[in-house]
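fold-stage: in
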Amino acid sequence: MISLPSIARSARRVTAPAALTLAACAPQTSIPATAVPPTGKALAAACDGRTGWSDPAPPAKIFGNSYYVGTCGITVILIDAPGGLVLIDGATGEAVPSILANIRALGFDPKNIRTLLATHEHYDHVGGLKALQDATGAKVFARREAVAPLRSGEADAIDPQRGAIPPFKGVTVSGELHDGEALPIADIDLTPHATPGHTPGSTSWTWKSCEGAVCRTIAYVDSLSAVSADDYRFSDHPDYVAMMRATFTKVAALPCDILVTPHPSASDLFARLADRPEVTVSQCREYAFGAARRLDERLAKEKAAK
């Protein structure tokens, strides 16, 4: 059972390490008239019945300066930020051409991507990160727990899915991020939140996105599912389970006007984008409650199988 804190935790803005200094670049704040209209309805229609990790999908606007540029099965987010474009996640290696095409279709130049970030260090979400880094010259930043897997391309030794998830091409990581410390990008308050569980390095992201005077907090919350290799039992790892439960409580308290998840199906994302994403303060709480319930079901199943 999740106990919600009485006061939501707010991100702390701190001085960034030297490695995180972002190159100056004029932001591209609007889509050129020649670009493809990024409609959520087109995305939902194109992916109807298609959920493959690498299935190409058209781009779509989420809100303000934030866009969906991923595949039918995997989310990749583009943020038109002051100082240069930011890309969160890279899907699979096979998906990279369609990701780059989506960025161009929106009227942006992939060479203006300055920062590459990630939710968690599994092939379906970061398998394309190396190719994207090579194509853009952007720098990768990650929390300490994710750095070694991102560099090696191998899952962490305590990752429940180690041995069941394919390896990926490792990337060059330029610097470490810290929980709750906003990146040195003006105006958007782009903040990493440590949400370990699906992997030890799992990271969720919040930032401010505006359309004129109307601003929303987008919460790109990492996967919370208790998924594992066949021979892994969560009940044999009580410390890991406790870490996951702490993450559920944390996610439930995140600022969360618009919820986005690494697997769009996990939050019915396409259907919500088709009608413009509603602002519902309970989205992150419901997502966390659902994950907690499924973890309890998994533990009960393991107990019954003993």
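fold-stage: in (second)
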Amino acid sequence: MKVNRWWWALGAILGLRLGSMAWMPLASTSEPRYAEVARLMALKGDWITPWFTPELPFWGKPPLSFWTEAIAFKLLGITEFAARLPSWLATLGGMTLLFVYARAYFGERIAQGALLIYASCALVFMASGAVLTDPFLALATTWAMVALAMSAKTPSPAWRYGFFVALAVGLLAKGPLMLVLVAGPMVPLFIFYPSLRAAFKRMPWVSGLALMLLLSVPWYLLAEQKTPGFLNYFLVGEHFLRFVDSGWAGDLYGVAHKRMKGAIWGEVLVASFPWGLVALALLLRGFFNPLHRAALWQTRREPDKAFLLAWTLFTPLFFTVSGNILWTYVLPALASFSILMALALDTPAFTSRWGQRLRTALIWLMPLLVTGYTAVVTLQPQYLKTEKHLVAYVMQHRQADEQLVYLDKVPFSATFYSRGQASAVTLKDLSEMSGRTTGLYLALPKDNLEQLSGALNQPLVPFFESAEHVLTRIPAVPSGQ
């Protein structure tokens, strides 16, 4: 692919995600939950403690992603685009680092191919336009590993101390997991590869670690001082109990993501789709072909490729023993995986006309599928688990003193789009509101409308439906009745 065509392709992929993330409503759990935490941060002006609700501190994640989203809300207004823009920028930063490293070690052509593969991986494309903490962890791990490798080739202060700045960024983005994901692949490389070991030894470890602590530790101390109990919950609960206990019941903010151990390898194929399937096919071919098997085995003697292999494999290996995972956990490994894929596809079979057509089709597969899905659910929002349009209907039609309430539990998207005005009620609460002088807009699960109508002994007329809820109105009780 010529350079100008390559830049056009990459720009189009990034542009598709930049545009589509402005259309798509915040849906399901993670996006509206994190966006609401950032909205509260911007509203309260509290830059130390993220808040899950105005009364409940959010101890589940460090503040870096919330800082960036709150700043975006301040600058651009409270919109989906503002909430997602920081993830897109973090992904762009990681891509820049990936390109610099791949070009320095493997040449321009490999760097270009790696960047297109990375941008078109399913998880990378989707996470780059989502309100998540993972793009910031991926940026930090990519920065740290690239800085470490570049320090071996060009040991400038920017790379040498950039490594420790990246560690601090990771500590503020995700926590001590950052240190594990960087130290894990370094250990075998340090042991088995003398050239890499020599480069590691030349790093300014004392002053660099002091810089890392100076940039990250003050927030942890301030957070504990402001809301005591944070360090125990975050360090012990989120980083140990969640990892070892697949049914961890201590989560204050949701549910544990219980999975069987080893499930992370299935998530690797999903997250890296379609390239993971191509990699699996190439590995199987190499396993059954003696010449290819010998060539694969020989790569262990090449420090540069061993560095990429250790970087790629450590994250899924680490999470193999955990039964509490999400597919987003794979994200830090996909930058190095993309370079390995670009190297594997740099063969006559894939540089031929047919091979280039296949690569082009694979590059565009996920960006077009995700963009098409975004367009469909934007035009047909009933297929998406979001309360955006239901909340908008209520805000447009309600009287000034009428409230929006949800039966039993308020979805995160309803909290965000109502700016915290939606509240929860129980059936008992509704039954006891005999003297209510204001009307209520009530959202409840679709199957519960007739049952609730009978329980309240009054007909309930549906006004609006979302994917999961139906909206009805309970009028005010006239005075004197």
